[in-house]
Each structure stands twice: as structure tokens, then as C-alpha cells.
Amino acid sequence: MISNQPTTRLHSQMDQGRTSRDSKINGHEPITMHPADAAARGLTDGDIARVFNERGEFLAGATTSDDILSGVVALATGAWYDPSEPGKAGTLDKGTSKRAQGPSAQSALVEIECYDGVAPEITVFSQPTIIREP
């Protein structure tokens, strides 16, 4: 998996904006893959894909293109984190050095399969519940 800069937002800024949200597939960031790779996994455009490796997983909206090499997928950086189980330990957050906390890579080895469940509701853009003191 390689990561590119998004065309619908500036890094993660404005992911809640209309342009970025309109680019999502069923609320999920699009992941682009070669049509043959998608077919081998039972995926078609618009399906929800489970993207995973030994360190974690996420859901993405499948989209296909002949413009990407077979064996490679592309996912833009910056979609907001929306865990299905808040507070549960997730993927490793490893900085680039002792002096920086940038991303350690713009690529990762992943496997992809068709998600065969009901995708969790996207809540990251919702306003929090206000609890007033009695």
C-alpha cells in the first residue's frame, strides 16, 4: 500500500468538509486497486474492503483503476481516525526518530478482503453529546 496526498483536503485538514466527505465510499476513504486484484478478492467498486496486516486493520471503500499496478493499492493520507472500539489499543505509533513524531513510512505491506459484515457507523464527524452538570 502506498499513500498519496489527498486531492480533497490538505493532509487531514477539512476531512469533515463537503468535498472530502463527497469523495468517500459509504463514508470510508477510497482505496484504489487494479481490477484483477479486486476481482481475485471478490471486490467491486463501492464495496467495503478490510485492509489489514499483523499490526492492525481498517475499512476502506473499494475503487478500481487500470492506472495502478497489480499488487499495489493506493490510499490517501489524512482521513480522520474513527475507531469502532474507542480506547482499544490500535496500531503502533512509531516516530521517525527520537526528535520527530512524523510518519515512519508512506507505505506498508497489507492484505485486503471483502468486508462481510455491517460496517460500523461513521461517528467522527458527529457533534459530541453535551453532558450538563445537575
Outline the structure in words.
Helices cover 8% and strands 22% of the residues. A hairpin with a 2-residue loop joins β3 (48-53) and β4 (56-64). The model has no long low-confidence stretch (mean pLDDT 88). The protein has helices spanning 18-22, 35-40; strands spanning 2-4, 30-33, 48-53, 56-64, 73-76, 111-114. The protein is mainly beta.
Q: Could you provide a short overview of the structure?
A:
The protein is mainly β and 134 residues long. The chain contains two helices and six strands; from the N terminus they run βαβαββββ. The model has no long low-confidence stretch (mean pLDDT 88).
Layout of secondary structure:
Elements: E1 2-4, H1 18-22, E2 30-33, H2 35-40, E3 48-53, E4 56-64, E5 73-76, E6 111-114
Oligomer: single chain
- Fraction of residues in H or I helices: under 10%
Report the β-strand fraction as a percent range: 15-25%
Query: Order of helices and strands, N to C?
Result: EHEHEEEE
Question: Which strand order do you get reading across the main beta sheet?
Answer: 1-5-2-4-3-6
